[in-house]
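Box 3.1 A note on notation
Throughout this textbook, protein chains are presented in two layers. The first layer is the amino acid sequence; the second is a token string describing backbone geometry. Keep the layers aligned when reading.
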Amino acid sequence: MLAVSIPLRPFLAQEIALLERRLAAARPTIGICLGAQLMARALGARVYPARAKEIGWGELQLSEIGRAGPLRHLVGVPVLHWHGDTFDLPDGAEHLASTEICPNQAFSFGSHGLACQFHPEISGDGFERWLVGHAVELAAAPNISPAALRRDTERFARISASRGEACLVQWLIAVSP
């Protein structure tokens, strides 16, 4: 495997080992946000700091393969991004989505693996806890406004949650025995 550019937290080693086993056994596996980064790492890809933090709502640019699969439900819909790290596309993975800041936002691995660095699951419920829980991170990023995040969450969360659910349900149906 390739070295990780960011320090690997000891408690994540077990998670990566589990992902390695699941993916090698072709078991259905989905990773969201850090989970996508861990999947990339488990598949031997480099995980490293992105050129900027990507925190806020924005649309994805889907690849042709991305537009043909479950992510098609997210076309034209802002999704929540909340990460400062990114990853290289693992060998054998199919590129599904990108943004200007992070060229690898989503990938599939065979028919059993889906990794989304963005958040297709966010409904807006409990979003205030995100703001409180990440207050230090947000304070260190003067170009990110908690007030704007609240407004955008009110604007986009409902449609994003509905489309994200359709995306995840389609993927789950496809991987169900």
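The chain has one domain: 25-175. The chain has a mean pLDDT of 93.
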